[in-house]
Amino acid sequence: MMRCLLFCCCLCSPHFSAAQNAYRRVAIPEQAYFAEPFDAGALDRNWVVSKAVKDEQLLKYDGEWAIEESRERRLLGNRGLVLKSPGKHHAISAYLRKTFHFSDRPLFLQYEVFFPETVDCGGAYIKLLSHTDDLRLSGFSDATPYSIMFGPDKCGSSHKIHFIVRHRDPVSGTYLEKHAPQPELDLSEYFTDQRPHLYSLNVYPDHRFEILVDLTLIHKGSLLEDMLSSRAEDQEDSSSAGSEPFTLSSVSALGFELWSLTADVMFDNIFLSDRVEEAQRWTQDTWGQRKSPGVIEKLLMATLKRPWLWGVYVVTVGLPIILFISFMWPDKRFGPPDQDYYYKKTDEPQKERRQDTEELLSRAEGPAAAAAAESRAVRRARSTHSSGSAP
């Protein structure tokens, strides 16, 4: 029976991809600073493609962006923001609903990245843009001030998850960039398994931070004790500050400013909040939809669009079960051992039962008793005849 079930699963496996969960549109939390599931069929007007130029004429960011349905088929109908042009620079951004201040609030940032092809070289990190009076999204570039940069990046054999903060030194007044050490584990799977992954960053008012991938904690530390300076001059400024507590600049927008040799990189379900319950609910409503169904559920789901599979199930699974039951139905060979009809097949001689012995004796004595009775009748006849003929 198990072989039949495995055969049925193999037979139906080409149809499983088309029998996965249908994507459910996500409700936008009212209190979130930013929530973007990309459910619209086109690029929302809130997203601004950079028009920054180089050499005073040419666009610096000439890569194309699009909203497309995911090539990963576990969620039918799911859409995301796609980086389309290999080997070009891309930049796109959007304003938050309201400015985020780091003073006494935690930050919960998360988004999904999907590399449908093997990544040669390219980044997929997100930037939280600092609030300034002259911030214009149409001019978003690598020179635009940011407070946090976070997300995956790969080039050659180097696989990274960046977490970089940019803050003002409380002593010198200059802005410093510090980055977290890379996690001590192999990150290559996130770039090569051709599956979406959820990247989450939590920053707390006491300067603790946590980095998670697919809800698994891969790194944690302190902004004051575990961050490394990017440049030697930054290291000197940082030491002069004693590592004193610092405050990150407020954030009023977020965006992607990337260069990649790999095309069709998809971003989805971007979320920013200061409420952990809200972040958990968003995770459940978005990433939670990717829960893989079990084998039995897959078999049933496959019949929705292919009713003829019921015939396959009956032949490969149902028929063997029926035959097994019919052959094993209790009879005089198979039954409770305390009943008279119980019989266990064995090569050893079986002990004769008393009832069977008496029956055999009765059958054996039958002819002998009849012969004896006939003999007695003959003798009586001869005796009577002899008596009657005497003088």
Helical percent range? 25-40%
CATH topology of the domain at 21-292: Jelly Rolls
Largest sheet: 9 strands, antiparallel
CATH-defined architecture of the domain at 21-292: Sandwich
Strand portion, in percent? 25-35%
Secondary-structure element order, N to C: HEEEEEEEEEEEEEEEHEEEEHEEHHHH
Mean pLDDT: 81
What is the CATH class of the domain at 21-292? Mainly Beta
Question: What distance lies between the first and last C-alpha atoms, to the nearest angstrom?
Answer: 95 Å
The 3D shape can be described as elongated
Give me the secondary-structure category. Answer: alpha+beta
Q: Unreliable runs, pLDDT <50, ≥5 residues? A: 1-19
Helix count? 7
Rg, rounded, reads 41 Å
Number of beta strands = 21
State the main characteristics.
eight-stranded antiparallel beta sheet; nine-stranded antiparallel beta sheet; elongated; 7 helices; alpha+beta; 391 residues; Jelly Rolls
Question: Please, could you describe this protein's structure?
Answer:
With 391 residues, the protein is an alpha+beta fold. It has a domain at 21-292: Jelly Rolls. The chain contains seven helices and 21 strands. Strand 14 (158-168) and strand 15 form a beta hairpin. The termini are far apart.
Layout of helices and strands:
Blueprint (H helix, E strand, L loop, with lengths): L1 H15 L4 E2 L11 E3 L10 E3 L3 E2 L3 E2 L5 E5 L5 E2 L2 E5 L4 E13 L6 E8 L6 E3 L2 E5 L15 E10 L2 E11 L6 E5 L9 H4 L4 E7 L4 E6 L2 E7 L5 E2 L2 H9 L10 E10 L4 E9 L2 H11 L8 H8 L6 H19 L26 H35 L3
Parallel strand pairs: 1-7
Antiparallel strand pairs: 2-21, 3-9, 4-5, 6-8, 8-21, 9-20, 10-16, 10-21, 11-13, 12-13, 12-20, 13-14, 14-15, 15-19, 16-17, 17-18
